[in-house]
Write a structure and sequence with these properties.
The chain has 69 residues and is an alpha+beta fold. Helices cover 30% and strands 20% of the residues.
């Protein structure tokens, strides 16, 4: 099992979520939890498609950190 860093952003009245290590794979939801749930489903679908087509799984290389200013 691979763990990917995800980003959840406020997008108007909804939330948008994506994984930087999986380009082109994103999801939205009315709440952060809903966006995360939808993204998990989108990532699973995307990775299954890559496997079926014989492509390698994306590596989880993104690093999370915070900066106080």
């Amino acid at each position: 099992m691979q763990e990917y860093m995800i980003v959840i952003e406020k997008a108007g009245k909804n939330y948008s979520a994506y994984a930087p290590d999986i380009p082109g794979c994103g999801a939205t939801g009315k709440t952060p939890d809903e966006a995360k749930k939808h993204l998990r489903e989108a990532i699973k679908f995307h990775l299954e498609g890559l496997a079926e087509d014989g492509f390698p799984m994306p590596e989880a290389t993104s690093i999370f950190d915070r900066i106080a200013v």
